[in-house]
Amino acid sequence: MIQMPLPDAAVLARRAAIVEALRAIVPGDGVIDAEAGRRVYESDGLTAYRTLPMVVALPETTAQVVEILRYCNREGIKVVPRGAGTSLSGGAHPLADGVLLGMGKFKKILEIDLPNRCAVVQPGVTNLAITQAVQNDGFYFAPDPSSQIACTIGGNVGENSGGVHCLKYGLTTNNVIGVEIVTIEGDVLRLGGKHADVSGYDLLGVIVGSEGLLGVVTEITVRLLPRPPGARALLIGFPDIGQAGDCVAAIIAAGIIPGGMEMMDRLATEAAEAFVHAGYPLDAEAVLIVELDGIEAEIAHLVARVETIALAFGASSCRISHSEEERLLFWAGRKAAFPAVGRMSPDYYCMDGTIPRAQLGPVLRRMEQMSAEYGLRVANVFHAGDGNLHPLILYDANKPGEMEQAEEFGNDILRLCVEVGGVLTGEHGVGIEKRDLMPTMFNKTDLDQQQLLKCAFDPGGLMNPGKVFPQLCKCAELGRVHVHQGQTRFADLPRF
Amino acid sequence: MRAFEPGDIAQAAEMIAAAAAEGQGLEILAGGSKRRYGRATRPPRQLLISAIRGVVDYEPSELRLTALAATPMAEIENLLQGAGQMLAFEPVHWRAAFGEGAPTLGGVIACNLAGPRRVRAGAARDHFLGFAAINGSGEIWKAGGKVVKNVTGYDMCKLQCGAFGTLSLLTELTIRVMPKPEASCSLIFPGLSDDDAIILLTQALNSPYEVSAAAHLPAAAAARCGFAGAVTVLRLEGPKPSTAFREEALLNLLPGGESLGEEKSVQLWQAIGAVQPLAPVAETCLWRICPTPSASPSMLRDLTASFGGAEYFYDWGGGLVWLSLSLDETGPDGGAAIVRKAVAKAGGHATLIAAPEQLRHSQAVFEPEPAPLAALTRRIKANFDPCGVLNPGRMQEGF
């Protein structure tokens, strides 16, 4: 079970005064005090965990964010920023003694600048709304996390979100060129802009993926790309999952970077097919969807090459989409894989490790063994092109102990990812979910460097504490780190 | 001048720890090809890391390469070439215009350098996956990973890329590699004014034809590349049937163009990346400006009104301007006051690259930061390098 730090009784005792102070900053219904109203925010996409926030503030302007953060900094109150609350790792999980800072009212698209191929938006705009605002002009915003109808661009910046197209088009970090952030001290910093690169340290790059621990993002400049004129997909079945993995490596070795390259194992395929009837090959051990996009001449050329490679690597079936409807049908099963798996089991737990592609076979075999040991089924959905695994562990939360078993199984999978040269999270973030696993990937010195960065932004540790890092840190002492080499520091601090 | 030459990473860490204990700054050097990039500071000691070299691991099908910091770029590029791969950000070699020594991987990443393909593939920072490093206290640490998709912890790669070795000495780096395109060619549009050229480049970059580089050379710069008059250039890369189709499509979309064959195209883009259209720059102040692309022609109008002898050209569709100013015209600030004012109006930043050493010492080389950002920068530097050992003064005066 994941534990959160114990609430600070002294802060809780001042709750009424804090609510009043926030109301002086955000007028009207922008501060939520009633329990029923706060209940809405008790969880994010990691729904197994719930905490009632002390108070919810919904500012509408950067000036209000500045005032709230200055107040919280002065009073030593913790702040948890939140977009749409779709984080699967608990990044927006509230704190019982913290202000939940909902950015949902920042929902304007401020400027669309096509000559410079960018848009300036507020953080509460949904990911998909950006694309919808520019698609009639032939543009789109490339990162496409599967929650894109709901998730906000502010949350995408916080988590460095990916999606099925990021092998070719990059993650959020590669598609955001400017941000405005407010630090806990109330400083407004503009990092990047409509121009290339940043001068000085790349703090824009640091903010993206910082999970709300360094500041609150109040404006974002995103890069827009011209939409490829066309796309076609191949739906390929393999009698063996290892062959499917080898085929993926061969496609890349042939110099082809598909727009998307997704794999599903037998269980995930069965679930998806039963749900959307896309015509997936049910006799296959692995199904691969490869999408090629661009101009028709290029698509035709590459589809033929991918088909040749797939057949050479033992594909048992290979269908090529001949219409936009058929292409979308191929994708429908993949895009619905999570809810489809949800129909097979009362609950499922979605993991998110990345491994070197060559390790796919061994990792899947080990996962099968673990599945038998834990007595829990696992379905695999896999961004094959970039090695990002999404094992879905099936369990029943109503059976005592099964959720804990599922979590332990998940942790074992992530340890395995690290062991074979991969990482704990490819796109969902560390949050509270993987916080305690960080030491499997990083030693104390590594984690201390991460804290050194944090301390430069937020010396009091008030921004989203309890996330990403497994232990509390006193910034003042960390600065003398070289003096204490080799000793265990902060032995007296509580660890959670 | 004292120079230390660590034989391996552990020795380098010891030397940095010793320098920290004594409060002595170190100038970190490998190939030394970028000594004219950044503020001219000469700490009392040099740390020559040339021995920390070699490719550690290269897996073409994983699209990644891991190498030690001082591995020469030439070695890496040869290795990639053999496997039909490349660094998509197109690292540039400035030796022809200025600088000496052989560029190394650590230097390219520490300076976040990218060439003409940046408009399509991003900068070096977009391809930097993980590293091991030594901080200013001599502690060895690591961050990132060896896979292309990773959000485990803060993106420390971004912090190091472009930090000029002032926060940590990068020792081992993992970078993303990409397949080399099967074919490439360019289209040339002669005789355009700056304004018309940037409009054309924008039209091309906004089209679905996947332009991989977009530059404009006004007459003087074009002359150094063998053209009689201004040229505006677009590059296309990809599978042969695709480049052939796109070439024709762009010529239809944008009248007045002509094709440039693959060999000439390769040469021209190498020259543009190497700043050859302004070479040699020995007696000038060379500015590297990243303005808002559409504002670049008006920015240049402001600048040429003050500096009649200015020479310049545009890359990245107008998003990068190289500007060469004669010392006779600039006065003792290298043109900084006027350049920074014009850049601020356009939105963007300017860096003084090649200039007499004295000038790169007395003037802010990088874009001056507003006070809260400058304070944050200072805190970050102090946290990673509390004794001011690593390339002190290279980015900012005093730390």
Please explain how this structure is put together.
Chain A has 496 residues and is α+β, with helices and mostly antiparallel strands. Helix content of chain A is 35%, strand content 19%. Among the domains of chain A are: 9-102, 2-Layer Sandwich (Uridine Diphospho-n-acetylenolpyruvylglucosamine Reductase, domain 2), CATH 3.30.43; 230-338, Alpha-Beta Plaits, CATH 3.30.70.3450; 345-429, Alpha-Beta Plaits, CATH 3.30.70. Chain A is built from 18 helices and 19 strands. In chain A, the strands form four sheets. In chain A, strands 12, 13, 14, 15, 16, 17, 18 and 19 form an eight-stranded antiparallel sheet that branches. A five-stranded antiparallel sheet of chain A has the order 5-6-10-8-9. In chain A, α10 (266-276) packs across α12. Chain A is globular. The termini of chain A are close together. Chain B starts with a strand and ends in a 15-residue tail after the last helix. In chain B, a hairpin with a 4-residue loop joins β16 (311-315) and β17. In chain B, 59% of the residues are buried. Chain B is globular, with a radius of gyration of 21 Å. The chains are: A alpha+beta (496), B alpha+beta (399). The interface between A and B is large, with 102 and 91 residues.
Topology:
The complex is a heterodimer of chains A (496) and B (399).
Chain A (H helix, E strand, L loop, with lengths): L8 H5 L1 H11 L5 E2 L2 H5 L15 E3 L4 H14 L2 E5 L15 E5 L6 E5 L4 E4 L5 H8 L4 E2 L12 H7 L6 H4 L6 E7 L5 E5 L10 H5 L8 E8 L1 E2 L3 E9 L2 H13 L6 E6 H11 L9 E9 L1 H17 L4 E4 L3 H12 L1 H6 L4 E4 L2 E2 L5 H15 L3 E6 L4 E8 L6 H18 L18 H4 L2 H14 L17 H4 L18
Parallel strand pairs in A: 2-4, 3-4
Antiparallel strand pairs in A: 1-2, 5-6, 6-10, 7-11, 8-9, 8-10, 12-14, 12-15, 13-14, 13-18, 16-19, 17-19, 18-19
Chain B lengths: L1 E3 L4 H14 L3 E4 L15 E4 L6 E5 L4 E5 L4 H10 L2 E2 L18 H6 L7 H4 L6 E8 L4 E5 L11 H5 L7 E9 L1 E2 L3 E8 L3 H13 L4 E7 L1 H5 L7 E8 L1 H14 L4 E3 L1 H12 L10 E8 L4 H11 L4 E5 L4 E7 H4 L5 H11 L1 E7 L2 H6 L8 H14 L15
Parallel strand pairs in B: 1-3, 2-3
Antiparallel strand pairs in B: 4-5, 5-9, 6-10, 7-8, 7-9, 11-13, 11-14, 12-13, 15-17, 15-18, 16-17
